[in-house]
Amino acid sequence: MVLLWRASCLVHCLTLYSLAVYSINVSEKCTQDTRTFLSELNKDLPSEYAALMYDAFGKMGSDVVGGNVNRPGSLQECLSVQGPSFTGQYCQVFLKQDPIQYFVGICVPDSCVEEEVQTLVVYETFQKARTSLIPPVPSTLLAQSTQGLFMTQCLSHTGAPDLSVVTCLFVCCALVAVPLTATLFVAIVRWQRNREVSPGVESSSLKTRDPNLYGTLMSNGTSSGGGSNNSCSGQLDSQMEQYTEEEEEKEEGSKKSKYTMF
Asked: Per its UniProt record, what SMART domains does this chain match (predicted)?
């Protein structure tokens, strides 16, 4: 137990020393968050966030001789990390180890920028139990064991959209919108034309009807409207006849009275 405690203290001291060496090129926030992560990782029972960050680091796979040299790690697992004062940030470190080149995916605090991550890698800060989390290809497979760092690229949570992606989406939306607009326009034009033609069709159909049909209906009294008109005209005729008869009777009476006087 004493040996384990001493080893843990030694690792912690080495970590603090390495952080102090390059602190001039790394911000205080990045230094503090990185120290928190590595200190937690080197515990006997590290926290869940530290274990997830460690698991998100790219590990060497099989068939290195056949060309399987890249170690992408886990992007989604790294971005899901929620530390005490930071979140996970996925970065790719591009290394050269003659005669091959490869990249390694790592998970670091989001408070570190690419230049700071590169400095951390150069000083071999990411270690667990004095073992680098970005180990070189072993000498058994590759004679040259010296790693050379030539680029670091980090993926932010709120990265700017790629211009090519935006252009492609715009073109696709335009290709879909143009046919739909044209179809809608044609449908509206046809609907307006049908609406304008319908009254003319009805009037022409009325003109083509039999002109004697209306008179036939009126004379036969089969139409409800025609029947009411016939009844009204019949009443007027009877009243006129009665009035005429009364006038004639008056005239005859006046003539008789004249004859009587003479």
From this structure: NRF
